[in-house]
Design goal:
Elements lengths: L3 H6 L5 E3 L8 H9 L4 E4 L5 H14 L4 E6 L5 H9 L4 E5 L4 H10 L3 E6 L2 H10 L3 E5 L5 E2 L6 H12 L4 E4 L5 H9 L4 E4 L13 H9 L5 E4 L11 E4 L2 H8 L14 E5 L2 E4 L11 E2 L21 H18 L6
């Protein structure tokens, strides 16, 4: 059956795997796409060679659509051109306005454009610039958070603003109940991050995964503490020893925080210092608990590890059952 969003992107299920930095990979995105959702690659900081390699590796693993996410805190013309040249047909823009020019380049390359927004006015601008899908990110979301409005209030406001343009809801959605809820609010799909961090394919450190599975909805922190490599960018993470030490010191500003500059680990590209924006991956060593452990408030709904495909199917099945009980036509 599907809906406007799934038909537009030629996918089976209204479920998008959020592009979660180094936690994502070709195998991860392909697994979600093969299960009927939309897998995403996070290539906003990747070198040109890495952009090509990740896209080609994903295409070798799935014939289904997948997307490339580009973060607009830096120029993305080259990465966009490389993605389009390699046949990517879904482009996602985040953290700022892509403007008409970038979206038009994507359209000329044959791609549909998803644009993340944080308000109804922002959604209107993205629509006027030509975005095919608007992603409404509520502040419950994990990782970097563009706005400050809760998902429950944001989604219907965005839906009302953009009319027939499909809206995908992000922030706090981790199971079929969340998907059914945002569909009832008028969204056409869900953008899911924290739940997918529990997937076997998520390239995160086992200690990070264990901490996610043990966390509750009250154990996340919203702020700008992990500003190394990406300053002044609000985000949500698990509370940990780094946050507690900073609070005990009176929440000092950057430059005066306890342990600032201290090496807490290392990975393939070098050291990890305290307050650095760094996803603890398989190749990270050191005090994992003290690092930036991205997580949304939906973390309390994440109870087990499982293949990414099973997560897609489980969420879809739960949502269908709920919608049928409510007398709403399922996707």
């Amino acid at each position: 059956m599907g809906n406007l969003f799934t038909r537009l992107l030629a996918i089976d299920l209204p479920i998008v795997q959020a592009p979660m930095g180094r936690a994502t990979s070709a195998a991860f995105a392909a697994a979600v796409s093969n299960a009927g959702g939309l897998g995403m690659l996070a290539l906003g900081w990747s070198t040109p060679d890495a952009v090509r390699d990740q896209i080609r590796a994903t295409k070798a693993l799935t014939p289904r659509p997948f997307g490339v996410n580009l973060v607009l805190n830096q120029p993305q013309e080259e990465r966009l051109a490389l993605a389009l040249a390699d046949g990517v047909r879904v482009i996602s823009f985040f953290w700022g306005s892509a403007g008409h020019e970038l979206i038009e380049v994507a359209h000329r390359g044959g791609a549909k454009v998803l644009h993340t927004v944080c308000s109804a006015a922002d959604a209107r601008r993205a629509m006027d610039d030509g975005a095919d899908v608007v992603v409404a990110q509520g502040w419950e979301a994990g990782g970097h958070v563009y706005g400050s409005v809760a998902t429950l209030a944001l989604v219907p406001a965005v839906v009302d603003q953009v009319g027939k343009v499909p809206v995908v809801a992000a922030g706090g959605i981790a199971d079929g109940r969340g998907l059914a809820a945002v569909l009832a609010l008028g969204a056409s799909g869900a953008w899911i991050g924290t739940r997918f961090l529990s997937a076997h394919e998520a390239a995160i450190h086992p200690r990070y995964r264990d901490l996610l599975l043990a966390a509750t909805e009250t154990e996340t922190e919203y702020g700008t503490l992990y500003d190394g490599t990406w300053p002044d960018a609000p985000h949500r993470t698990l509370r940990n020893s780094t946050i507690r030490a900073w609070e005990a010191a009176g929440r000092p500003d950057s430059g005066d925080r306890p342990g600032e500059g201290e090496i807490v680990g290392r990975w393939s590209d070098g050291h990890v210092v305290r307050y650095q924006s760094h996803t603890p991956t398989h190749d990270t060593e050191g005090d994992i608990e003290a690092m930036s452990l991205w997580a949304g408030q939906g973390v309390t709904l994440v109870h087990k590890t499982q293949p990414a495909a099973d997560i897609v199917r489980e969420i879809a099945g739960e949502a269908r059952a709920i919608l049928q009980q409510l007398g709403i036509a399922p996707f």
